[in-house]
C-alpha cells in the first residue's frame, strides 16, 4: 500500500505540510477532515453502519467521511471519499459546502487530536451517479433515513459518531 501524507494545518487552517498520523497526534498540528451528507430526492440522508474492525464499531456514521490527503482541498477529498465509500461518481462542484468546525477531541488510545472538519451536502440521483455500493471494509450496510428517524434514533440513545451528532444538531437543531 502506498503511503500518502495527510494535510497538516495550523490553528487558522493554513496547510503547513504533508505529514504522518504520528505527527497529527503530536498536538502540534490540525488535520483536515470532511463529511459528506448524501440526500436523495425525498430529502432522506444516507447513513452507514460502521464495520466491526473500525474505530467506533457498529456506530451510525455519515454518508462518507475521511481525512484530506496532502495536496488535496476539502472538496477534492469529499469527492474521493464518496467514490471510495459509496462507489458513485460525483463531480467536485456537486458538493455544496455547509460549514466548517474546529474540533479538539480525543481518539485512538486516548491520544489528543485537533481537526478542522468541513461538511458538504450532495444531492444524489441514481440515474446520474450510479447505484450506491457500500464499501464493506468501511461499513456493514447503508441506507437512506428520514431526518425524523435519525432524530428518533439519537434521542433513543443509539450510537452515532460524535462528529455526526455534532454537525446534525447544529444543522437540524
How are the secondary structure elements laid out?
Blueprint (H helix, E strand, L loop, with lengths): L5 E4 L5 E5 L1 H4 L5 E10 L5 E6 L9 E2 L2 E4 L6 H13 L9 E12 L3 E13 L2 H4 L9 E7 L1 H9 L6 H11 L1
Parallel strand pairs: 3-8
Antiparallel strand pairs: 1-2, 1-3, 3-6, 4-5, 4-9, 7-8
What does this protein structure show overall?
The chain is an alpha+beta fold and 173 residues long. The chain has one domain (6-172): Alpha-Beta Complex (Nucleoside Triphosphate Pyrophosphohydrolase), CATH 3.90.79. Helix content is 24%, strand content 36%. It has helices at 21-24, 74-86, 126-129, 147-155, 162-172, and strands at 6-9, 15-19, 30-39, 45-50, 60-61, 64-67, 96-107, 111-123, 139-145. Strands 1, 2, 3, 6, 7 and 8 form a six-stranded mixed β-sheet that branches. A hairpin with a 3-residue loop joins strand 7 and strand 8 (111-123). The chain is globular and about 40 Å long.
Shape: globular
> Which structural category fits the helices and strands?
alpha+beta
Following the backbone from N to C, one meets helices and strands in this order, namely EEHEEEEHEEHEHH
CATH architecture: Alpha-Beta Complex
SS elements, strand count:
9
How much strand content do the residues show? 35-45%
CATH class: Alpha Beta
Amino acid at each position: 500500500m502506498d503511503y500518502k501524507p495527510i494535510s497538516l494545518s495550523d490553528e487558522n487552517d493554513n496547510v503547513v505540510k504533508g505529514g504522518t498520523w504520528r505527527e497529527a497526534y503530536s498536538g502540534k498540528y490540525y488535520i483536515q477532515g470532511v463529511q459528506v451528507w448524501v440526500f436523495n430526492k425525498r430529502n432522506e440522508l444516507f447513513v452507514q453502519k460502521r464495520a466491526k474492525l473500525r474505530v467506533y464499531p457498529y456506530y451510525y456514521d455519515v454518508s462518507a467521511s475521511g481525512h484530506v490527503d496532502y495536496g488535496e482541498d476539502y472538496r477534492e477529498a469529499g469527492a474521493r471519499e464518496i467514490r471510495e465509500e459509496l462507489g458513485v461518481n460525483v463531480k467536485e462542484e456537486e458538493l455544496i459546502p455547509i460549514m466548517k468546525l474546529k474540533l479538539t477531541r480525543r481518539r485512538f488510545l486516548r491520544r489528543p487530536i485537533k481537526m478542522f472538519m468541513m461538511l458538504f451536502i450532495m444531492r444524489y440521483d441514481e440515474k446520474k451517479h450510479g447505484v450506491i455500493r457500500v464499501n464493506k471494509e468501511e461499513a456493514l450496510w447503508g441506507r437512506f433515513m428520514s431526518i425524523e428517524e435519525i432524530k428518533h434514533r439519537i434521542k433513543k440513545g443509539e450510537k452515532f459518531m460524535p462528529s455526526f451528532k455534532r454537525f446534525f444538531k447544529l444543522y437540524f437543531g
